[in-house]
Specification:
alpha+beta; Kinesin; Tumour Suppressor Smad4; 4 domains; 10-stranded mixed β-sheet; 6-stranded antiparallel β-sheet; 14 helices; 30 strands; about 40% helix; elongated
Length: about 650
């Protein structure tokens, strides 16, 4: 069966409107998508679905984008077309994968996760899973749902349901077992029994992403994100329990981008290179699988192992999975090349053939097979160990590497075996203990607190800091006292700022003389040595990127009235105003200096003229009266002319 492919075009964004972009995308119907170049030449593509979300909608009071015509595809329409099919396949026992692809800012996350009232495929799917489970009326059938969440950042796999400060520095290892297939070693799986629980886990994951992004001074999520749902249907037949297993992978890929157009340097450039590298390898895998599907390059092996992303998605691409790909398109003429590239990518992907099978498994059988695999690994390890000790021939470097790899695989399998032997109830008890720790850290919204704003809507408003216990410090990780908010980036001092209480007020003040240059409240630089009293919904910027919203109290909804763009815009506007004021001051100082110089020159010249005039008058005293008067008149007019010329020079 082929990979199903959908494309979706979004409205113009602010940048595209400011640059007077025109639309290059047309969707005439019959699932066709046309792209038009600057010469009016059209290229036509046909996909399983072509979703028009560019215009034809109105915004309801709730914030939901409701269709005004039949052409507009809202979030519910997109879910019913592709998301529902994913769940239907999962219920039948197939592994499923839905992943979103497109350039940076093309609307991938909007389709997958959504914002505000416009929920995307991921939250709607999670809600629908438990709606269907609750409709079960068969006493011999029960369901188990476990959720994992990971990100691939700079080719490292990180567990998003683990605190960033407690993660292994090198990330998690990707393993492959004959019994388990490709899996991520040590990735946590949390059992969930309701939509509220799974939603809370995803919020926890996004919150941990925000902490990671703040620590790295990132303004957006520079990673691929995968939500993994382990869905099991257990049916009791006599004394045996059969299990249908479906792994549902919901993948939000990081945006592809032209690095030159982003202005990326340093770490951001490295991130962009790694993102583009993994997407390039994904493209190579898609091309290879597409060629194999049409009879070309039959003996070529897809380069799954060349990146962490393709390794994890190995089943979804050409393997045992029913896969749907949704490609997000920018309609703007300024993004023509990137949009055309996305369409070509999608056109190749639809040629991929997968071999999905219903996954029915006997749990005890899987445990037995994994034990047998480990027995074989143990025997191989013992043989290599004997060789390394000189008891079975001469060992080389390859033997040492093989020994370490086998040992790691054996230990990973043992962990997986231990995990498989836990009952669902045991997992629930462990999850409850973990949740109790997390809930213990939740803040009281009726108390003063800070909310982290981020350029990426997925990461914005997720992380909060309580200001109940003051003083509360901000700075680098080496700061003393140790800061509660650890930052990095331009302008951040070791001991940067502190929140203190004075009467009923909370005051923000610089904790370092140089820090005042990099602390802004509502766009204005903090100039007062004694700090500033904070008011509800004040926007605070530390450095140039970290933006926090101060809340005296909150109902949990009012924080969304302020976003990252609003805070950044007022900061930029105030920066421009300050730059203009500085420029005017400098200009005025130059004018004053010039005026002073000209006035001094005028006084000097005037005194000189007075002296010359006086001298000539004395010389004329000896001339006849008539001639004398005429000469004096002439001199007086000459003096007035020169004086007037000097005045005009100063005024100019």
């Amino acid at each position: 069966m082929s990979v199903k492919v959908a494309v979706r075009v979004r409205p113009f964004n602010t940048r595209e409107k400011e640059r007077d972009s025109t639309s290059v995308i047309i969707m005439p119907g019959n699932n066709q998508t046309k792209i038009i170049d600057e010469n009016g030449k059209e290229k036509t593509y046909t996909f399983d679905h072509s979703f028009w979300s560019h215009d034809g909608y109105k915004v309801l009071e709730s914030g939901y984008f409701e269709p005004e015509d039949e052409k507009y595809a809202d979030q519910k329409f997109v879910y019913n077309a592709v998301g529902k099919e994913v769940l239907d396949n999962a219920w039948e026992g197939y592994h499923c994968c839905l992943f979103a692809y497109g350039q940076t800012g093309s609307g991938k996350s909007y389709s997958m996760v959504g914002y505000g009232a416009n929920k995307g495929i991921v939250p709607i799917s999670c809600d629908e899973i438990f709606s269907r489970i609750n409709q079960n009326d068969q006493p011999d059938k029960k369901y188990e749902v476990q959720v994992s969440m990971l990100e691939i950042y700079n080719e490292k796999v990180q567990d998003l349901l683990i605190d960033p400060n407690k993660r292994p520095q090198g990330g998690l290892k990707i393993r492959q077992s004959t019994v388990l297939g490709v899996y991520v070693e040590g990735l946590t799986k949390y059992p969930v029994t309701s939509y509220e629980e799974i939603n809370r886990k995803m919020e926890e994951g996004y919150r941990n992403r925000t902490i990671g992004a703040t620590l790295m001074n990132a303004t957006s999520s520079r990673a691929h994100t995968i939500v993994m749902i382990d869905f099991r249907q257990l049916t009791q037949v006599g004394k045996k329990t059969t299990t249908k297993i479906s792994m549902i992978n919901l993948v939000d890929l990081a945006g592809s981008e032209r690095l030159g157009s982003t202005g990326a340097t340093g770490d951001r450039l490295k991130e962009g290179c790694n993102i583009n590298k993994s997407l390039l390898i994904l493209g190579n895998v898609i091309n290879c699988l597409a060629d194999k599907a049409i009879g070309k390059a039959k003996n070529m092996l897809p380069p799954y192992r060349d990146s962490a992303l393709t390794r994890i998605l190995q089943n979804a691409l050409g393997g045992n999975s029913k896969t749907v790909m949704i490609c997000a398109l920018s309609p703007a003429s300024i993004n023509y090349e990137e949009t055309l590239s996305t369409l070509r990518y999608a056109d190749r992907a639809k040629k991929i053939q997968n071999k999905a099978v219903i996954n029915e498994s006997e749990h005890d059988k899987m445990i037995r097979l994994l034990r047998e695999e480990n027995s074989g690994l143990k025997k191989m390890i013992e043989d290599l160990q004997s060789k390394l000790l000189g008891q079975g021939g001469v060992a080389g470097e390859d033997d040492k590497e093989a020994f370490l790899e086998l040992k790691e695989q054996y230990e990973a399998n043992q962990l997986a075996l231990t995990d498989m032997q836990k009952s669902f109830q045991e997992r629930l008890e462990e999850a409850k203990k973990h949740d109790a720790e997390i809930i213990g850290d939740e803040i009281d919204l009726n108390e003063p607190h800070l909310v982290v704003l981020n350029e990426d809507p997925q990461l914005s408003h997720k992380l909060r800091y309580s200001l109940k216990n003051l003083p509360f410090y901000v700075g680098r990780k080496q700061g003393n006292p140790k800061p509660q908010i650890i930052l990095s980036g331009i302008g951040i001092r070791q001991n940067h700022a502190v929140f203190i209480k004075k009467g009923d007020n909370i005051i923000l003040k610089a904790n370092d003389n140089g820090a005042k240059e990099y602390i802004f409240i509502n766009g204005k630089k903090l100039d007062n040595d004694d700090g500033e009293i904070l008011n509800n919904k004040d926007r605070i910027i530390f450095g140039t990127n970290t933006i926090l919203l101060f809340m005296k109290e909150s109902d949990g909804k009012d924080i969304y009235e302020v976003d990252w763009e609003t805070a950044q815009t007022e900061f930029q506007d105030d920066y421009k105003r300050r730059q203009l004021e500085e420029s005017e001051k400098k200009k005025q100082a130059e004018i004053n200096s010039m005026k002073k110089g000209l006035e001094e020159e005028y006084t000097k010249e005037k005194n000189k003229m007075e002296e010359e005039f006086k001298k000539k008058i004395e010389e004329l005293q000896t001339l006849k009266e008539k001639s004398k008067n005429e000469e004096i008149k002439k001199l007086e007019e000459e003096r007035k002319y020169k004086e007037q010329a000097l005045k005009e020079k100063i005024e100019k």
